[in-house]
Queue: 2 jobs
Job 1
Amino acid sequence: MFDTPEFVIQISSQTFETARFALLFFKFKTDMHRRDFIKALSAAACAGFFAAPSFGADAKKFKMKFSPRLGFSFGVPTAGRDPIKLMEYFKGCGLLAVEGVCPINHSKKFSPAEIEKQIQIGEKARELGLEVGSLSSMNEKDVPTMTANKVRRADGSIVEDKPALRAMLEGQLETTFGVLERVGSKILIIGPGALDRKLDWRKQYDNVIENMSFCAGICKKRGFVMEIEALNTVKDHPGVFCVNNTLAARIARDVDSPACGILYDIYHEYMQAGNLSSLDDPNVWKSIVSFHVADAPGRNEPGSGEIDYAGVFKKIWDKGYRGFIGLEHGQTVKTPEKDAEILKTYRAFDAQV
């Protein structure tokens, strides 16, 4: 028994078929605005296609591997911020996985209490049968690390020092592996760092391939996978080197290691490119290790922005993707009622595949 309430969404076979019909009807209303489509899904749920949540046992399991980032997606208004409570809550919702279960800070060593908490998270995930997705660890945004072989010294100065960079990368990987082993994950998020505006772009690219290959070799030897995350420069991360998934996939292709792929962050791609057409690029598609989800431009739950998430989820499912879909978004309203609404929206997405 869990010491926090869990949702049970009871769906009769007749009601389920009715819901599927409604979803298909709205799916083909191509002239409907994408946000109206999401609202229609939520309205259908609230109107009775999905029974009101009850308590006491686990809900029907999802098919898609939606993986809430603990403390960042939804659930906090209902379950609080403690990762153990959140995992129990998400298990009760019928979700299959979680991600971002603890922070990794390379500026200081973990305390004994932090290490113990990581162990507890891993044990609880195994107890609940929840898979653990990626952890953000080495996605430098401000220093041209892999691009120009530069490091930040203790005094704050940034200098070119390739041996020091390699030692830093190796040390950060070792720290990350320890956390991943404790929580039960195999995937880390990595990035090449900032753009060096004084260095030729092609030289920076070559440096990135060399440094990423160095990291991938260590990951492969230890049995881990690193995924390169492209970030948008339009709003969130001005000055980063890897700005779209086409470039991330090119890097992964040139690294040419089974331990290196890409994290396709739908929010960042949409903010940078204004569309998600790169999903149709075979080189991008075959490089994808996992996805991140947030609507644009607000980086909140699907339905709060411009992205056609019903279409996106149907597309990636039909293309055969069955991996982690990390929920890395905020909430437009932080209430337990909004938690329930977001859960219903994900249920509706799951019902269409």
Note: Residues 91 and 128 are 7 Å apart (CA to CA).
Job 2
Amino acid sequence: MKKRWALLLAAFAINVQAAQQSEAEPLFKDGKGYYSYKTPLKISLPKDKVLIQYFYSYGCDVCLSGDDYLKNYAARHQDKVVLQRSPAFEKGNAFSARMNATFAEYGRSELSDLFLFDSAGQKPEHSLTKSNQLIEKWLLKHNVNLRRFQDLFHSAGVEKRVNEDVQRYKTYSPPMIPMAILDGKYILISNTLYNDDYTYAVLDFLVDKLQQEREVK
């Protein structure tokens, strides 16, 4: 009987210890929910708000979901965050940047979001990022003049916008896409941006953390 009680007490002690460790373990930490630059980037930050820089590419499923979650979060927390969205240059590919810039120069910036949506989840043979014919069909569907769009695509105005995006991309040098960077310090990638509730929880944690860090300074 004594041996039995000893075993029960030992098991209880182990359970208590595990519970205490669980309570002490933070819900999010570097490597769990988010990552960090070894050295924070020296960038211009908005006053009293956290800057969320987001890099995406057309034809990227997770980029679409991450984009939606970040836009929703920024809309709900306009007093706390500023969201800046930029096209990526994976392997030197400027397609997303040039298309995004052309939409802007054309005066139809809203088409960029729509193209991101329609280009996600497509099979290679139906990809809006691979076929000029499908791109032209898509543009016509949305009442875009092909000749004007093509002229703008190779214009100086688009080139200027693309160069600005290139410089921003070089500043952050994201090793993967999608990627969101908060205040040039904390990083969110696809293993966080795939789920809305999880993304919002991590963002709440990091925004509060960054605000506390600023107060300490």
Note: The chain has one domain: 32-208.
